[in-house]
Amino acid sequence: MSSNNVLSAAKEAQNAAMLQGDGSFYEELLDGLDDGIYFVDPQRRITFWSQGAERITGYKAVDVVGSCCSDNILMHVDDKGKCLCKSGCPLAATMKDGEHRSADLFLHHKDGHRVPITVRASAVHDRTGRIIGGVETFHDGSSQQADLQRIRELEQMAFLDSLTGIANRRYLDNSLGSRFAGVDRALGGFGLIMLDVDRFKKFNDTYGHETGDEVLQMVARTLSHNCRPFDTVGRWGGEEFLIVVGRAKGEDIQALAETLRALVEKSSLTVDGQPLSVTASFGATMVRPGDDAHSLTARADESLYQSKESGRNRVTFQE
Predict the structure, then answer these.
(1) For 178-234, what is each residue's pLDDT tens digit?
(2) pTM higher than 0.90, yes or no?
(3) Do 310 and 283 touch, CB atoms closer than 8 A?
(4) For residues 213 and 203, what is the distance between their CA atoms, to the nearest angstrom?
(5) Going from the N-terminus, what domains does the chain have, and what CATH number goes with each?
(6) Strand spans (E) along the chain
(7) Which residues participate in catalysis according to the annotation?
């Protein structure tokens, strides 16, 4: 259930309970939710504290019910460390004007540490529309943030080249496999562009490996910034890059390769006050009936070799 739905359910349950005099109706409902939920009266005394609130804060209902939420319990602060209980409290402001509010804050756990939370505050009204209290829901963002960070780290290790930040060989292999599943063929075909930085070993020997790494990063950025979102740009190995071009015809692939060649040539970085640039040789090809990943990459590599043999800094295309 989303936070907005939780808040609506909480308000409806609170109103129903107050009108019917049956607190158990909403307590059972709200205690089953993962979000923390609590209600306050007009003086901001806590009248209900859910089991979700207990799990997130460490405070039991018996510890807090009857106390004011500003009585050194949650002690909300913002990302600058400013205490919001006396000034800037979203729930207090909502109880004054009736407007819904949400904010990313940090609460004080019973064990002493701070927990990142997203809070949503809403006023509780009686039948006449008069504000008679407030309800706040909040959820713990720490585990979610940690999970997302771990996922990003695993994805980077598995599929991203550590030097350039673009796709690695493994991801490119997977991308080619999915293209051969037939999706792109139905959308008009696909192809490959393979490129190799010209005379890169000499460049490394002259300027050093650190500068060489910066050049590879520059080339990678030039390629990735100038391809379409549904193309896959990756480092094939060493100074060699591969682009899986989707939803394209032969002339489109050849035109893209020519554009990228010119952009690489015109890119430069400054080292010791001097601009340094490189060129690259390109081989490009379209998928053919009967192709597989091996035959397609072999043809792109053959085209790249022809560009090298023909003088470098050029594109060779095979239909």
Answers:
(1) 888 764 455 568 999 999 999 999 999 999 999 999 999 999 999 999 898 889 999
(2) no
(3) no
(4) 11
(5) 3-146 (3.30.450.20), 160-318 (3.30.70.270)
(6) 36-40, 46-49, 101-108, 114-125, 131-140, 190-197, 232-237, 240-246, 269-271, 274-276, 280-286, 315-318
(7) 239
